[in-house]
Structure formats: structure tokens, C-alpha cells
Amino acid sequence: MELTDTLRRLLQSFERYYDVRTEGVAAPFAAEAEFHSHTEQYFLVKAAHLSDIDSNEYVFFALEPVLTCGRLAELSDAAWNAGLSRVRPYMGHRNSDVSLIIIAERIDDDALALVRRTRRSKSYKFGLYGWSNFRALAYEASSERTASNRLGKNLRKLVRNV
Predict the structure, then answer these.
(1) Residues 6 or more apart from 70 whose CB is under 8 A from it?
(2) What's phi and psi for 145, nearest 5 deg?
(3) Over the stretch 105-132, which tens digit does the pLDDT of each residue have?
(4) Concatenated DSSP letters for 117-156?
(5) Which DSSP category does 71 fall into?
(6) Which of 32, 45, 65, 78 has the most CB atoms within 10 Å of its CB?
């Protein structure tokens, strides 16, 4: 199966809950997906407003013929910076997570190990204004191997279904 076919099938699984874009996407990425959730809490009546809670997720998809450690570092930096540039922390902001999904024809063994060790997080005003976490997943299309960091383990189920 070609990389673009794998990406197309993966994007179909995201379309139910995410806003998916394949055109007008930043340079190193093939597609982007965004999820926004807003919740308000009240006490008995709407006039007794307690809190607003916003949760966001930004997912970046990349297609690579061969994934190396250097290219993985470039993609993760680009995804993290692009995701953080969209975060607007305030008192009702809970979290804005950034995810990177890389579909490659072949992945170096060193790059697989580096995906597992990738960790990034940021808190805003000591967590009072929320936080951001980074999820990473690399999928090798030729052998169907996957590697993810600790927070990206739930992404493995999506790729296995593709």
C-alpha cells in the first residue's frame, strides 16, 4: 500500500471528530487535524456560572520515504512549535496537546528508539492556565512496525486499524 493511501485511510478515521485539512498545510506536513472542546459548568442555573473548560488537540501528519533521527527531530520541532503557536492560555484553558504522526516507507532503528524517548510538555502559569503535551507515533508502512512515546500509545490503535 502506498504512503498516500495509508494517509487517506488514516485521515478518514479522524474526520468524525476532527477538522481535517490537506490543503494549505505548513511545509513539512501532508495534513493537519484540529479538535476543540468547550465545556461550561453551572450551579443549578446558568446565572451561577462556575467555570469554562477548553481542551484542544492539534495533529500533524508527515509522509517520509526514509525516517532518520535528524528528520525526526526536524519534524517534531516543527509540529511542537506550530502547535504551541496556536495555544491561547487563560484561566479556563485546560490543555492543548500536540500530536505528530509520521508514516514512512522505512524507519531507521535509531529513529524508532528516538520516537520512544521523545518527551515534551509545557505548563502555563504553573498549570493554572493549563498545559500542553506532545504525542508522537511513527509507522513503517513496509513492515507495519509502529513506535510511539508514552503519551502516544493510544494512537497505535488507530494505525493498526488502517
Answers:
(1) none
(2) -80, 145
(3) 999 999 999 999 999 999 999 988 999 9
(4) H---EEESTTTTT-EEEEEEEEEETTTTEEEE-GGGTTHH
(5) H
(6) 32
